[in-house]
Specification:
By secondary structure, the chain is mainly beta. It has one domain (about 1-100): Jelly Rolls. The chain is built from one helix and nine strands. The strands form two sheets. Strands 2, 4, 5, 6 and 8 form a five-stranded antiparallel β-sheet that branches. The protein has a four-stranded antiparallel β-sheet with strand order 1-9-3-7. It starts with a strand and ends with a strand.
């Protein structure tokens, strides 16, 4: 779980559990996250896959799936996969809570 308050731009990074894909190829990764935000701002999520970060996506309050498509990865890429979250707290009341499911 990521939980922070009064800090804009805080980044938390997590490694992911690995799955045996054999000789297969991964073309899409889906991350399901629950997020709660009070105040305003633009918190974001990013995926590390196939040797690079794939691009920030804005996070919305609630439980949502965040998907990166057009990938081409093998078992090594799955083993090295990571997710990072960037807070976007602004305003008087501000906090982010992101438990990973």
């Amino acid at each position: 779980m990521v939980s922070e308050s009064n800090t804009n731009g805080l980044i938390d990074e997590f490694t992911m559990g690995s799955v045996d894909i054999g000789n297969g190829t991964v073309t899409q990764v889906n991350v399901r996250a629950y997020f709660f935000k009070a105040g305003t701002g633009n918190p974001q999520i990013d995926l590390y896959f196939n040797g690079s970060w794939q691009g920030w996506q804005s996070i919305s309050s609630g439980t949502y799936n965040y998907t990166w498509t057009g990938l081409s990865g093998n078992q090594t890429d799955v083993n090295n996969m990571k997710v990072k979250f960037k807070s976007g707290c602004v305003g008087f009341v501000r906090f982010n809570i992101i438990p990973i499911q």
